[in-house]
Amino acid sequence: MAAYPEKEKYTAEDLVQIIMLLRDPEAGCPWDKVQTHTSIRKNFLEETYEALEAIDADDPAMMREELGDVMMQVVFHCVMEAEKQNFTFTDVCDEVCRKLIYRHPHIFGTPEQQKNGIMDWDALKNKEKGRRSLVDEINTVPKTFPALMKAQKLQKRAQPYGCVCGEQETAGHQAQAAQQALAEQLVQGADEAQARAKAGEYLFQAVNWVRSAGMDAEEVLSLYNDRFAQECVAKEASKQA
Q1: What is the pTM of this model?
Q2: What would the pLDDT profile of 173-226 be if each residue is shown by its tens digit?
Q3: Which has more pLDDT, 47 or 161?
């Protein structure tokens, strides 16, 4: 295969072409051409975490490199789908552009929509995704989220429907005390840094309680997420019965 042309600046289109060449069945890279979505799934996650580390470090050079690695993962998956004639990188760009335009009518909409100001992002997303019920909301929370992220998302989606965790349940004395202390601190006007530190302390302690009991915090929270989702769905079904 001929050398790739040297340029002063390479673009996203070049990245697509390079990945396509690496994936060439005959002349491609022995490693790249045999990869699948599943085989490089963890690579995507690792590159994302490394990009987050660069963002947290506020390091522009590191961000440039790590965001490039994330973009390479996106293009790699797009090229694999293009090989099956399902969609291309251009299709992905087209879809996300349309999504951003649709979800920002206060910027890109009619003069009347722009005059009305910012609209409810969640309402627009629900309309776009066809979410009309609590079951729809619960079912669209990604199963691959880490347990803590998933717990927060489930609670946010369920709360407008009156399905709130903890209000009708009796928690342990330590957990109740932590909840009350945090609530009092916020009411008393503690600054955000203090409140965040205290909330983090309680979460960290909760993990310690679980670990001390010989259990895995991620696993038990994941199991409870499933239980909470099932209870919400059952509650919604009983309303419709």
Answers
A1: 0.68
A2: 555 666 676 666 665 656 777 777 878 888 888 888 888 899 988 899 999 999
A3: 47
* Residues 163 and 235: beta-carbon distance below 8 Å: yes
Q: What is the Cα–Cα distance from 115 to 15, expressed in whole angstroms?
A: 40
d(CA 26, CA 15): 19
What local confidence, expressed as pLDDT, does residue 186 receive? Answer: 61
DSSP-derived secondary structure for the chain: -PPPPP-SS--HHHHHHHHHHHT-TTTS-TTGGG--TTTTHHHHHHHHHHHHHHHHHT-HHHHHHHHHHHHHHHHHHHHHHHHTTS--HHHHHHHHHHHHHHT-HHHHS-HHHHHH----HHHHHHHHHT--SHHHHHHTS-TTS-HHHHHHHHHHHHGGGT--TTTTS---HHHHHHHHHHHHHHHTT--HHHHHHHHHHHHHHHHHHHHHTT--HHHHHHHHHHHHHHHHHHHHHHHH-
Dihedral angle over CA of 70, 75, 77, 80, nearest 10: -160
Q: Please list, residue by residue across 20-31, b when 16 or more beta carbons sit within 10 angstroms of its beta carbon and e when fewer do.
A: ebbbeeeebeee
Q: Is the pLDDT of residue 171 over 50?
A: no
Q: pLDDT at position 168, please?
A: 43
